[in-house]
Amino acid sequence: MTMPAPLAEVVSDFGEVQGQDKLKLLLEFADDLPALPADLEEAAMEPVPECQSPLFLHVDADNPDRVRLYFSAPAEAPTTRGFASILAAGLDEQPAADILAVPEDFYADLGLAELISPLRLRGMSAMLARIKRRVRDAPENSAK
Questions:
Q1: 5 Cβ neighbours under 8 A, 6+ residues apart
Q2: Band of the pLDDT at 144, cuts 50, 70, 90?
Q3: Whether this model's pTM surpasses 0.85
Q4: By the 8 A CB rule, do 29 and 86 touch?
């Protein structure tokens, strides 16, 4: 499986814990979701309606060597925040090519399928798909 080192590390962290400890780790990630920069408002971000809770993302792919990802999700949505935080920790500041190489179903390796509904897991898949689409659509990448 091809994925950037930070994302592989997150997957490894989940692989080291079992059962309910996976949920605890997901909640820890939810607590660590980076705040939005002062110059970025949620209203200017793309909604991800496939998520069960309100989630907004912004992909800055102007520099294909260092793609920036920003997420906004309410504190009352810890699962969604956790998923967003996993993607932020694993993909923020990574090269566009590395992000595009991430398998669509990488989240299966987190081992959350027994603990979280398929509908919620599809939300994480939708986040990744939108990130990849924005990266592909960036002028720097579409010219290649």
A1: none
A2: very low
A3: yes
A4: yes
